[in-house]
Amino acid sequence: MRINRRRYLTQKVAKILIWMAALSTMGVMALIVLQVLSEGIPVLSPRFFLESPRSMGREGGIFSTIIGTIALTVVAIVVATPLGVGTAIFLGEYTREGRISRVIRFGIGCLAGVPSIIFGLFGFVFFVIYLNMGWSILSGGLALAAMILPTIICTAEEALKAIPYSFREVSYSLGGTKWETVTRAILPNAMPGIFTGIILGVCRSIEETAVVILTAGSSLIIPTSLFSPVRTMSVHFYILAREGISMEMAYGTGAALILLVLFVNIVANWRLNRYIRKRA
Amino acid sequence: MSAIPSSPLKAEVKKLNFYYNLVQALNDVNLPIAEKRITALIGPSGCGKTTYLRCFNRMHDLYPGNRYEGEIILYPDQLNIISPKVDPIEVRMRISMVFQKPNPFPKTVFENVAYGLRVRGEARRNLLEEKVEKALKQAALWEEVKDRIHDLAFNLSGGQQQRLCIARALATNPEILLFDEPTSALDPTATSKIEELIMQLKKEVTIIIVTHNMQQAARVSDYTAFMYLGEIIEFDKTDKVFTHPSIRLTEEYITGRFG
Ligand SMILES: Nc1ncnc2c1ncn2[C@@H]1O[C@H](COP(=O)(O)OP(=O)(O)OP(=O)(O)O)[C@@H](O)[C@H]1O
Ligand SMILES: [Mg+2]
Asked: Phi/psi of residue A243, each to 5°?
């Protein structure tokens, strides 16, 4: 009886603590988002999105920074996806667990734990200076690709691991080669997981500031090529707020940023659900 | 070991030993496989039936540390299919397998059956359609699924899924079809359908079937091998094995005294 009461009490306390943890997390997040949105949304207007910034961003809109954000993210994803998914396939399907795969995994683990500013410094030294690509979409995109690579590899690897072994056996038993087995029996089923990793990478690229400032610069001019410097929305927000240029514009940019990330996630979720529903 | 089958041989297992790393799972197995007949493998759990069956399509090559010794000769070309010089893919192109649990891909009925054809490079739509239909008819599934051939295979019942897997294995015209307890996950009605189907199929393909179910072996097979602890204890015509087994152990097993 006493034991029962104690266990009952433990259960109650645990439940309360867990609820508190979840609620305070949600509370803090809601507070931040609401703060930015409530200050920022009044600034939003079609002109805000479609006009480029004038006088350092004090006036005008944020058009060139939207272009910058999209350009950098596209480069990062286009580079990191094949590399990351390829590495995951290599680790999961093409090597047996051994020294090579352990070394690669260790490397990925280290990369995943490195603060983004390090990727920024690396990108600056390697792409901007050494390869002489300057502050540009290309330098920034490549540095961002390096930053999101571990995420894409890990999620893709998990997705591949979750495929039942029987699919592989059936494919081989029907005369499939390794490549056919990977492309026909495994990848289509791992797509949702891989896609989730890519979306995570998209969001991190959109939000990143440190890497981008060091590798893509902060030009407000609309880019004309991969070698043009750009400023992303996150960097714009950071500069506007930090240099005290215009808090109003900063909040507007922040609100636009939050809405963009929300939009990406909603569209991604919708596509994902459609894909899953079509196959299961 | 007795009774060389009177019909021509499709394969012959000679002094086959198999090792999972250091553990020996098959011990000097010899067995003739008669062409277009059904050979059943029976024996208590863990005696090596699955291990034996999976030698025939080199499934063990998928995992490190596995080792074969001896020969499995495939006729008419006398190819030793477990020789390291023979590409396992080539073997699997000729010898298909149906697994214990129905395991369709999360694809449509059509794409499931077409899988083996597609990996062989067949992309011509009309040919694929023709062969898929033929395989589904062979597997006695066509009538039930012809209107939903482009539905997901998961929507079929368990028994239908297993027949789909049989159609998938048949679509590429294998010379030998391996069954590993194909009905152990099915109810009696679905089971008897599959048994009937297997008996039909022997007109076209050589069949080896592993089963726990002695009545099943007695009903469907022409020859029966009784395995125990990685060895073949007795091999003979099925009715002989089930009516006059020549070895005590076999008799004890089929009368249910152990296993
Ligand atoms: N991957 C493996 N590694 C090591 N030993 C294995 C492996 N698979 C099976 N064995 C062993 O080999 C022996 C034969 O196993 P096998 O699966 O062939 O038996 P089985 O006759 O098919 O049994 P069941 O009727 O239960 O399916 C068993 O002792 C088993 O423990
Ligand atoms: Mg078995």
From this structure: -85, 5
Q: How many residues does this entry show for chain B?
A: 259
Contacts of A175 in chain B (CB under 8 A): 89, 92-93, 116, 119-120, 172
B contact test, residue of A94, A96, A169, A172 with most B CBs within 10 A? A172
Q: DSSP characters for B161-214? A: HHHHHHHHHHTT--SEEEEESTTTTS-HHHHHHHHHHHHHHTTTSEEEEE-S-H
- The per-residue b/e assignment along A23-50, b for 16 or more CB within 10 angstroms, e otherwise, is eeeeeeeeeeeeebbebbeebbeeebee
Task: Report whether residue B66 contacts ligand 1, using a CB cutoff of 6 Å.
Answer: no
Q: Whose CA is nearest to atom 14 of ligand 1?
A: B48
Residues, Cβ < 5 Å to ion ligand 2: B 50
Cβ-based neighbours of B66, under 8 Å, separated by 6 or more: B18, B19, B20, B21, B60
Please name each of the domains of chain B with its CATH number: 9-104+176-254 (3.40.50.300)
Residues B195/B227, Cβ–Cβ less than 8 Å:
no
Name all domains of chain A by residue range, CATH numbers in brackets.
46-279 (1.10.3720.10)
The 10 Å CB-count burial string (b at 16+, else e) for A97-123 is: eeeeeeeeeeebeebeeeebeebbbbb
Whole-complex ipTM: 0.92
Q: pLDDT tens digit string along B196-246?
A: 999 999 999 999 999 988 999 999 999 999 999 999 999 999 999 999 999
Q: Identify the helix (H) or strand (E) that includes residue B98.
A: strand B95-98
What pLDDT, in 10s, does the model give residues B57-85?
999 999 989 999 999 999 989 999 999 99
Over range B240-258, report the average pLDDT: 88
Q: What is the rounded distance in angstroms from the CA atom of residue A215 to the CA atom of residue A130?
A: 12
CA distance A166 to chain B (A): 7
Q: How close A95 comes to chain B (CA, Å)?
A: 11
Residues in chain B with CB shorter than 8 Å from the CB of A166 are 99, 101, 103
Q: Is the CB of B105 under 6 A from ligand 1?
A: no
CB pairs under 8 A between A and B: 66
First to last CA, chain A: 48
- pTM comes to 0.85
